[in-house]
Specification:
Blueprint (H helix, E strand, L loop, with lengths): L15 H9 L2 H20 L8 H19 L5 H10 L5 H28 L8 H46 L5 H35 L9 H22 L1
Helix pairs in contact: 2-3, 2-8, 4-5, 5-6, 6-7, 7-8
Length: 247
């Protein structure tokens, strides 16, 4: 679950290399590129395209494992953003309070516990605790996605209502032969926001599916390695796109 990014901050005329530098300077930018490389590798391994005895197969497994551990290092202190998001949130209803608590406390707990997963897997903490930490973080992550999905569905309903109002306003202006360029521009931006919100919802669902697979230790039809790898890649691509637009 990523914090939603504001649309329109990206300058389309900006130099590509300067934009790339700005993107790579962000922790999330590098993290999502690592995520793409990891899940692309997992897809290759899960598809059985390479024989188990092939040297490249072993190298890809080692690469995938190393990238996974590297990504955990990028999450150090990331739980603070959820604390600040919760502190600055404005609550207008009990439903919003409940969903926000689920989303931010769930994700914040996930990032906090992931620090101990990283310390365990890197050898500083006894490896026997890694599984326990992993199970706690997976449950916290799932709870966070439940809240995040609820918030995004709520936001989408509001966006759709605003869209209907703008479309109705434009139709009335056209009937009266009144200029409505400003309303059309607002409608275009609103539809771009709606698209990003839908993509973000798909991303949360894909990440939520992976959290369920972690909780079930990869058991069940919805935990098939190829399916989880595709979900991870889809999530990474969507997140990369959103982060790119925000630069």
């Amino acid at each position: 679950m990523d914090v939603d990014l504001k649309l329109g901050t990206h300058n389309k005329d900006a130099d590509f290399l300067n934009h790339l530098e700005s993107y790579l300077a962000k922790r999330d930018g590098v993290d999502k590129l690592l995520k793409i490389s990891r899940y692309a590798t997992k897809i290759i391994l899960a598809s059985s395209l390479l024989p188990e005895t092939l040297t490249l197969n072993h190298r890809l497994k080692s690469f995938e494992s190393s990238v996974g551990l590297s990504r955990k290092a990028f999450r150090l202190g990331k739980f603070v953003q959820d604390i600040n998001s919760l502190r600055t949130s404005k609550f207008y209803s009990n439903q919003l309070i409940a969903l926000s608590l689920l989303a931010y406390l769930g994700e914040g707990t996930y990032y906090f516990v992931e620090q101990f997963v990283w310390l365990s897997k890197s050898g500083l903490i006894d490896a026997k605790y890694s599984r326990k930490f992993g199970r706690i973080s997976a449950w916290a992550e799932l709870i966070g996605y439940v809240g995040s999905i609820g918030l995004k569905i709520r936001d989408l309903r509001g966006i759709l209502e605003d869209e209907r109002c703008l479309v109705a306003s434009i139709d009335i202006s056209v009937m009266r032969e009144v200029k409505c360029e400003e309303e059309r521009e607002k409608l275009g931006k609103l539809r771009e926001t709606k698209l990003l919100k839908k993509l973000s919802l798909v991303q949360d669902m894909a990440d939520g599916l992976m959290a369920v697979a972690d909780i079930r230790d990869g058991k069940g039809r919805l935990s098939a390695p190829i399916l989880i790898s595709l979900a991870g890649l889809l999530s990474a691509i969507i997140s990369t796109h959103k982060n790119w637009l925000s630069c």
